[in-house]
Write a structure and sequence with these properties.
Layout lengths: L11 E7 L3 E8 L6 E4 L3 H14 L2 E8 L6 H19 L8 E8 L2 E8 L5 E5 L18 H13 L2 E8 L3 H19 L15
Parallel strand pairs: 3-4, 7-8
Antiparallel strand pairs: 1-2, 2-4, 5-6, 6-8
């Protein structure tokens, strides 16, 4: 794994992760314009990760190769880990960030509530459930239950607290996409620099 330090003008990072199951490279710019390039071998997952960049205002590049012939789990999880590490590195000491953000986001009949805290304490509360026999999305199929595994990996590596809750929804695609868009918008607000100090009475995050 390799990481690049935050730059003076833009909060950026590069992360590489290589295991026997996957090889992942991620580049992120927290102060970007929403330009994304995502290639994981799972088109629907590419679309969802792309939503994080587009609606999060992040410049994001993700390239991943994994053992999709075995299962998509390894690829999805390792992309979450690498992306989380990149966000944590780009944030640096978090001086001046808003830190907290929340949003309730609709997508047609789906309504998802998200709250996050760039706390330095990893915690995921995931209130979105799919039946075990819910069909996968895209080709090769993305099992919608893997969204939870992605968020858990991302939260743990990024060191943030994230609550996701489904308030309404029937269409699987809409529900998953609403959750990614909601996290993106909350993350966009939380990483925004609007002060000069570290937003914690402890003096560190």
């Amino acid at each position: 794994m390799s990481t690049a330090p935050t730059s003076a003008d833009h909060r950026t990072a590069e992360v590489g992760r290589s295991t026997k199951e996957t090889a992942v490279e991620v580049t992120v710019d927290l102060d970007g314009t929403g330009t994304t390039s995502v290639a994981t071998g799972l088109p629907f997952f590419d679309h969802m990760v792309g939503q994080l960049g587009r609606h999060g205002g992040l410049d994001l590049r993700v390239a991943a190769e994994g053992d999709l012939e075995v299962d998509a789990h390894h690829t999805v999880e390792d992309v979450g880990i690498a992306l989380g590490e990149a966000v944590a590195t780009a944030l640096g000491d978090k001086a001046g960030i808003r830190r907290f953000a929340s949003i309730t986001l609709p997508l047609d009949e789906a309504l998802v509530d998200v709250a996050l805290d760039l706390s330095g304490r990893p915690f995921l509360a995931y209130g979105i459930e799919f039946a075990p026999d819910t069909p996968g999305l895209g080709t090769p199929p993305f099992d919608p239950q893997l969204a939870e595994e992605f968020w858990r990996a991302f939260v743990t590596a990024a060191g943030l607290t994230l609550h996701l809750r489904l308030l309404a929804g029937r269409n699987t695609h809409h529900i998953v996409e609403a959750s990614f868009k909601a996290v993106a918008r909350a993350l966009r607000d939380a990483v925004r620099v609007e002060g000069g100090g570290i937003p914690s009475t402890k003096g560190t995050l």
